[in-house]
Design goal:
The structure holds two protein chains of two kinds. Chain A is mainly α. Chain A has helices spanning about 1-25, 65-85, 95-110, 120-140, 145-165, 170-180, 185-195, 225-240, 245-255, 260-270, 270-290, and strands at about 205, 215. The model of chain A is unreliable at about 1-60 (pLDDT under 50). Chain B has helices at about 20-35, 40-65, 90-95, 100-110; strands spanning about 10-15, 70-80, 80-90, 115, 120-130. Classes of the chains: A mainly alpha, B alpha+beta.
Amino acid sequence: MGQSERAVVRTRRDVHFNANARRNGATNGRPSAEADRPSHGGAYDHADSVADGANSAGPKVEFTAEDRERLVSSYIPLVHRLSRRFRDCGEAQEDLVQVGCIGLLKATKKFDPDRGVSFITYAVPVIVGEIKNHLRDHGWAVKVPRKIQTQKLAVQRAVESLGHILGRSPTFSEIAEATEISEAEIYDTFEVGNYGRPLSLDAEYDGNGTKDISTAMDYIGAEDPQFEKLEDRMDLGQTFCSLTKREKAIIYMKFYSGLSQTEIAKRLGISQMHVSRLQRHALGLLKEALVE
Amino acid sequence: MTLDPTQDIVELRLPLRLQYLNVIRATVGVIAGTLDFTYDEVMQFRVALSEIFELATHLAEHEGAEHPGDISFRFEPQPDGLAVRVGAAVNVVRDLVAEDQDESRALLDSLMDSVEFDTDGTVHLMKYRSIREAT
């Protein structure tokens, strides 16, 4: 713990130092190499002064790519922690972390030390905002009209605040009066929460303790590929009937019994060349029937 | 809009399939809401009826019949509350009274003012309005 903390502190001081150095015109202030990758332990817990050394007067300071790299890697644990807040929102944790990291990158780009606030103060709302935007855009698989979403929120707020005022749960007419949303629309908001998250087709129904496990996919029908084959087979069957007896025999022996042309020739008492010619003719007819 | 407490009886019959869960939730929400129950009470109705519905669908599935059968809800507004009679093709009562379902039983008892079981398999739920004087 002590070791990692020291590394983190040094990183921070380096960023601090860098920013100051550049403001003073020194462009080659290089951070010490051993603090390059701080460990993740608690990097954000006392990060109040990470990059705020530049909040006094002076020309605007911009981070170099290196500073940014350092900032990003020391704040990744923060992204993890913030994204955990949204773990029940139905999105994969990894996705939220990725989105949060985009927010962190934005924060490092847009952070202005001259505002006099520490980096973490700025970064947290940016990261959370990014995650919330993502959830708004992707969290609902079925789009619920914005109006109903807003109304749902208004109803929930009204229920809470009316509860405080009345000292009991409000009735629907009271909610309607307070929110100026009609009662019918309040009923609509009930069902909003349920439609955002469809079940995975591969999600297992365990049948509540019964032994057979199936997935939703098992209950969904599809066109049977055998139908197409059936049509082909009927076409082929018709054409097959129109072949001569000898051709039929050749096709049968060739493709069902697996005999060679020489063997077929022997059985039919004709030359192999003749077999070859008849077979080609028969196959040509069958192929034609399929193409049509 | 308030239902006439003595006249208007609403009945709903649904196949015992989970996809109809939302129908019963929405229905009881609207009925209880119009009867001047409070928001919390309406939510309690929703939870209670969902519980019975889920239990019944589970039982129907368990029995593995070709057709899952129906469940019916009869909403009978009273001057001071709402009574709901639930009858299902599967015997929910037997299961509710059985020991392994005492969680469902406890849930219903805590959400409703009275829960009674008929020998013919009907569940009687009764809940009184907390606000006596409807505004």
